[in-house]
Amino acid sequence: MANLTLVQAINLALTQEMEDDERVILLGEDVGKNGGVFRATEGLHKRFGPGRVVDTPLAESGIIGTAIGLAMGGLRPVPEIQFEGFLGPAYDQICTHAARFRTRTRGALTVPLTIRVPVGGGIHAPELHSDSPESIYAHTPGLKVVMPASPYDAKGLLVSAIRDPDPVIFFEPKRIYRAFREEVPEDEYTVPIGSARVVAEGSDITMISWGASVIQCMNAVEAASASIELIDLRTIYPIDTPTIVESVKKTGRVVIVHEAPRTCGLGAELATQIMEHCFLHLEAPIQRVTGFDTVMPYYKLELEYLPDAQRIGEAVEQVAAY
Amino acid sequence: MPVKTVYETSIEHVSILDEHGKFDAKLGEGLIPDEDVVKLYEHMSVCRHYDEVAFKLQRSGRMGTYPQNMGQEAASLGAAYALQKDDWFVTCYRENAGLFWHGLPMEHVLLHWMGDERGNEIPEGCYCTPLAIPIGTQMLHAAGLAWAAKYNGENRIACTFFGDGATSEGDFHEAANFAANLDLPVVFVCQNNSWAISVPTKIQCSAPTVAQRGIAYGMPCVQVDGNDLFAMVKVIRDAAVRARDEKRPTFIEAVTYRLGDHTTADDARRYRDADEVEMWKKRDPLIRLRLFLDERKLWTTKKEEALQASAKEIVSAVVKRAEEIAEPTTNDIFDHTFAEIPPNLRVQRSTLRTHSLGQDPSPLRDTQAASAPTR
Ligand SMILES: Cc1ncc(C[n+]2csc(CCOP(=O)(O)OP(=O)(O)O)c2C)c(N)n1
Ligand SMILES: [Mg+2]
Question: What CA–CA distance (Å, rounded) separates B310 from B304?
């Protein structure tokens, strides 16, 4: 066991998967000698060589498009897109191709691909380095979307993603890359895709979140007088509906927290599923604490935009008092 | 003859004032009047000081990530000098010197990197676009701006800047193709500074020059010493005439070098040799311009002292303006999203400073509580 940060846990997962499986290769901008701008691939270029840790031309469509070909050609590519804001040029390859090859070839050609992408705000970064586009990809059939909120889950989920037979977008919440450490086993383990984690048990309110917001939620849970059950979704698609339903049937009150804009954010889908499955158990309207329907502001105002413990606490009080 | 050559070409490299201060009078004489060379040298010096100060602001926590421009000033400044004030200047983020010459107030760039969108509020009459963070995207906008100018019968052209890395993006190739095939008055300037963060130019381009990429699109192309202000002025002038008079684009590869780290978030020692940096320090555009001025007796140590003092004054006044701007309000998050703010967004805006902190309180019974201001 080692005490690791989230980014170190990712590095460990990559190292071990590359050791175990020669089909795993990394590609992207600055992932080689520089070890990635967040150092997620630190040391891997030296260890596995430039043939398996590849600095590519600066072209996201090229990175994902060739990774699709590599995957269909029998490899397990793990491309990195440097920041979520630069998924734009790769959107076509991800949504038009990676997501659809299995369906359109009736399974003859498949795309076992893991796209690693740092995501989210809160690090004082420039424009287009702080967005939360997860629901765009959750809304695209054929893609799995994952976002760990702890070092342990990061390693276990990344291993699952790399071994998954289908394309996975692996969002890494950059705000908590180095925010805290956690015991992460050296030994092999996986965290299954599609399973949420109950972070804290509680009986009054169910709070659902993912990514860096989970940490804000933990602060809010600590400050609240109500007993809150906090669920870290971990996988954005496919959603672990049973875990949510079980909790909401117990509590009857729900607060959903995400950084992404409110309209068509994943919170909308979660609220609908809860309504479908728990209608008669609900004691209050579901509350969402989210980013706004605006362009993510430059960093002077980013903390006004991102849900924090105060905003979450406000929603908790209102839901509890209803 | 079954096999014949159907096309042959060569790429010219233009250099006028070399790193030792040697001046090619045949090409360079009369290109820039002496008094303007002095002004350009002064401007470049102020920009260099600005760059150093910006770096320190970041290091002392007063500004966010900043990409140093150090060593690349001649490329954009030469272009700005050669263009007209109402030509479009469509830049990336290493064109401060040209942007300021073209009319962008200096505090705007600091504000941008201080995480303040007001840095992008370009003043009326200043024909530039905001710093482009997504690499390789702005060249298409330049093509469109040039197209609009042509459509409107204006004399305006567009000049766009981007790095060597940016030439790998698909958008670059689409911009070049549009400009050439639709006869658009655009000047493409690639600042080849050897690196795209840690990735060397050879990963972006296997051809011996980046310049020759223009050939594939059927446009004239040229390589130029990007640290040579005179050479820059010459090639941009030629390209601007071609754009203005013939509505034809040009592709220019300006060979320069990033003397600093990629940005303040980067540590270039991880991937490049100190020797390489030392070699390029000698090719600094400021050094050779100074040699030129000395040679022509246009400059003195006293003038240099006065210049350094005034650079300090100018830049500290700029920093003051940037730092003393009023704090943005939370309304700023919302107010520029659309020409007219839609009702749902208005709810988010109006509740942000109330009890519900931006969460729509309408589904809750007690909307009274939701409108009580708490901060
Ligand atoms: C579309 C996109 N992908 C990746 C990045 C991250 N990034 C920022 S600068 C940079 C390198 C740019 O290199 P180059 O075009 O040569 O310009 P330079 O910084 O050298 O001036 C990269 C990869 C980005 N900003 N935009
Ligand atoms: Mg470059």
Answer: 10
B133 CB near ligand 1 (under 6 Å): yes
Is pLDDT above 70 for B363? no
Is the pLDDT reported for residue B365 higher than 70? no
What domains does chain A contain, in order, with CATH numbers?
2-184 (3.40.50.970), 197-321 (3.40.50.920)
Q: Are A37 and B265 in contact (CB under 8 A)?
A: yes
- Chain centre distance of CA B188: 12
CB B121 within 8 A of CB B68: no
> Do residues B218 and B180 make contact, with C-beta atoms less than 8 angstroms apart?
yes
pLDDT band with cut points at 50, 70 and 90 for residue B351: confident
Q: Annotated catalytic sites of A, by residue? A: 129
Q: Which residues contact A179 (CB under 8 A, 6 or more apart)?
A: A5, A6, A215
- 0.90 exceeded by pTM: yes
Q: Which of B113, B135, B198 to mutate to test the pocket of ligand 1 (most atoms within 8 A of CB)?
A: B135
Residue B139 is encoded by which pair of tokens?
Answer: 């060249």
Q: In the predicted model, is pLDDT for residue B361 greater than 60? A: no
Residue B131 in contact with residue B120, Cβ under 8 Å?
yes
Out of 1.10.10.10, 3.40.640.10, 3.20.190.10, 3.40.50.970, select the CATH number for domain B12-323.
Answer: 3.40.50.970
Residue of B nearest to A296 (CA): B333
**Count of CA atoms in the C-beta half-sphere (13 A) of B52:** 11
Locate the domains of chain B by residue range: 12-323, 328-375
Q: Which residues of A touch B204 (CB under 8 A)?
A: 57-58
CA distance linking residue A309 with residue A150, whole number of Å = 18
β-pairing verdict for A2-4 and A24-28? unpaired
